Amino acid sequence: xxELLQGLVIRTQAGYQDVKTxxxxxxxxxxxxxRKGRAEGDLVAVGDQxxxxxxxxxxxxxEEVLPRKSVFSRQLSGxxxxxxxxxxxxxxxxxxxxxxxxxxxxxxxxxxxxxxTERAHIPAMIIVNKIDLCGIEKAREVFSLYxxxxxxxxxxxxxxxxxxxxxxxxxxxxITTLAGxxxxxxxxxxxxxxxxxxxxxxxxxxxxxxxxxxxxxxxxFELPESGYIADVPGLRTLALWDIQGEELxxxxxxxxxxxxxxxFNDCSHSHEPGCAVRxxxxxxxxxxxxxxxxxxxxxxxxxxEEDE
Length: 308
Ligand SMILES: Nc1nc2c(ncn2[C@@H]2O[C@H](COP(=O)(O)OP(=O)(O)O)[C@@H](O)[C@H]2O)c(=O)[nH]1
Ligand SMILES: [Mg+2]
Ligand SMILES: [Zn+2]
Hints:
By secondary structure, this protein is of the alpha/beta class. The protein folds into 3 domains: 5-67, CATH 2.40.50.140; 89-237, Rossmann fold (3-Layer(aba) Sandwich), CATH 3.40.50.300; 245-303, Probable gtpase engc, domain 3 (Ribonucleotide Reductase Protein R1, domain 1), CATH 1.10.40. The chain contains 9 helices and 13 strands. The protein has a 5-stranded mixed β-barrel with strand order 1-2-3-5-4. A two-stranded antiparallel ribbon has the order 6-7. The chain is globular. The structure holds guanosine-5'-diphosphate, magnesium ion (MG) and zinc ion.
C-alpha cells in the first residue's frame, strides 16, 4: 500500500469527497469498511481532516477520518433508523448574518442560532447587513443588546462594501460558516469576499426551495489569504427539539451566569420565587426579548418553526 496522505475535505456530493492535500486535490470515496452499515452523512463531512490512499490519477479512498474538534450535526430520520448527519466539521467560527431591514430581522431566530452555536462550542459573531438601507444608528438600536451580552457585532453592507474588510479580517486562517435567513445577503457578502465566485443572489427561497431535499453540494471556498468559507445549506434546520429543560440555560450566556444565584437549583426561571434570572429581567439587566426567546424555546416547543 502506498503511503497515506492527510488532507482536508473541501467538497462533498453524492457519494464522493474532494480532498485537498499538499500534492493536490483528490476525488475520493469512503473506504467500504468505513461505510459498512452506516449512512454516509454521519461519517465524513466538509471540514474533516482525513487520511487517504492516493492513486496517480488523483482519485483515492478515505481510509480514516481524524478526530474532530467541533461538529454541526442534525438528527435525520430514515425509514428504519435515525442518525446524526454531520453538516460541517471543525468550524472555527460562525457568522450569523441578519439584515437590519428587508427582511426585518427576526431576533428569535438569531437567538436560536446562538443556541445552536453555543451548544456546538463554536464561537459566533453577528453580521448585520444592509446598513446602506437603514443606517448604522438604527441597526445598532436593534442589535447592540448582543454586544452587551458579549457577542461581537459587525455592521456591514454588501452593497457599498462597508465593513467587508473587517469580515475578511475575522475569516483569516479559519473555517467559517455563514448562516442566516434567506434574503439577508449571505451570497452577496460571499461574492464580495471572494471576487470571481459569483454565487446566485436575490432568488429568495433558493435555500429552502431548490435542492433542500435532494442531494446537496457542501463545500469550502478557499480564501485568497488563508482560511475557508463553508457553504453548507441546512444549518438553519438544525434541530433544537432534543435540548432538554435546563440544558438550555448554558446556551443563553447571560442567563447561564445568573443561574447559580437562583434560590432553587432546579429553577426553571419562569415562576419560582428567588429567581435571579427573573430579577435581572425586571431590572432590565436581561433583555426582555432574550428572556422571551428562552421561555419559548424551553416551554413552547410546538411553534419552533413558525418564523422560518
Ligand atoms: N441594499 C442592499 N441590498 C442587499 C445587500 N446585500 C444583499 N442585498 C440584496 O438582497 C437580496 C438578497 O441577497 P442574497 O445575497 O441573495 O441573500 P441570501 O439569501 O442571504 O444569500 C438581493 O437582491 C441582494 O442584491 C446590501 O448590503 N444592501
Ligand atoms: Mg444565498
Ligand atoms: Zn431562576
